[in-house]
Amino acid sequence: SGIVEALKGEHLWKRKFLLKCTGDLLRVSGMRNNALLPVLVLALVTGVCRAGDYDPCAVSDALAKGDGMTIGFAFLPDSTLAQWEGVHPCRAADHAKLPNARVSVYRPKVDTLAVLLGRRETEDSLFDASAAFNPNTTQPGPENGPENGASRFLTLVAYQSGKGEIRSPARIIRSLDGAATNAVGVVESLTLIARLDKGRLKYLQWNEMGCGACGGSGSGQCFKVGDNELACGANVACLGPDVEDGKCQLSIYIAFAGTDKFSRPLSSGRKVESLDDYSITAAFANQEAK
Q1: Which of the residues 55, 166, 205, 242 has the least number of beta carbons within 10 Å of its own beta carbon?
Q2: Percent helix, percent strand, percent coil in the chain, to nearest 5
Q3: pLDDT means per 10 residues in the chain (290 residues)?
């Protein structure tokens, strides 16, 4: 495709289209009965009120190359991967199973290589890392989990509803439990492949990059993120109160596979699937420079 987009996600209650919603209750456009739910359920889970193109729970038309495709990302603090089993953020009946969830929405163009950038301050607000910097507690590590009620994991899924409830497997993106994830700190990046069939989304799948770029599977920067997949990350020190920047937030690389609504093949996914973690960043940078 020769195009790279860097997209900044905003949490939905900050988006201008929420101004269409008034009062303490928001109407859930993705629910058949249009029932009203408290704002803390809607804004943090389905997240959109009559938002049209920006609603990941809305039915969309078949897409061609270059069309925008809405994808939601749901973040669940103080959670485990098991909490996501059988759960979908667009399903009203599942809202109670996703307490304190937050949602960001992105709209990359079909068959571009896109980099979806999170917001450090928002991710920090969802993940209490205080135990790691309390001198009166034990540093989190392989021998011990988080102390003093600090968050254990921050987990994430990518999702869309449309004509089917499409959802990626859940992934751990922050951890203070080295016994479970091998490393403690922040996962730096994940790679998502959106697979379409004649322009309609069928699957959202993570493409494992491994830990070759950070010293291999035994490295203290190699995270077990779920389903026996590995990803590089930054040490928990990057979450320190005095650290302002650096690799301390998640970036999601996204590419496309399958066919668009005119049955044209989508090629960006094949490019990404042939890479490993050594070359994924360089590949996106090279495309951006073209």
Answers
A1: 242
A2: 25, 30, 45
A3: 42 30 25 29 35 74 93 91 93 88 88 83 80 50 44 91 88 93 92 96 93 90 95 83 68 94 95 66 55
Structure tokens given for 18: 């929420």
The owner of tokens 């997240």 is 47
Sort 278 into a burial class: Cβ within 10 Å, 0-12 / 13-18 / 19+: exposed
Distances (CA, A) of 26 to 23, 97, 144, 228, 232: 7, 19, 42, 39, 39
191 in Cβ contact with 198 (< 8 Å) = no
The dihedrals phi and psi of 71, each to the nearest 5 degrees, come to -130, 130
Q: Which two tokens stand for residue 88?
A: 């979908």
User: How many CB atoms are located within 10 Å of the residue 288 CB?
Assistant: 14
- Helices and strands of the chain, counted as H and E runs: 5, 17
- Tell me the torsion sign for CA atoms 130, 135, 138, 139: positive
- Stated as kind and residue range, the H or E segment containing 185 is strand 185-187
Structural tokens at position 127: 């993940």
Helices (H), the chain: 39-41, 120-126, 178-181, 268-273, 280-289
Q: Which two tokens stand for residue 27?
A: 């109407």
Count the alpha carbons within 13 Å of 77 in the hemisphere toward its beta carbon: 16
Tell me which residue of 62, 25, 19, 63 sits closest to 42, measured CA to CA: 25
- Residue 95 pLDDT: 87
Classify 190 in phi/psi space as left (phi over 0), alpha (psi -120 to 50) or beta. beta
* pTM assigned to the model: 0.77
What pLDDT was estimated at residue 221?
92
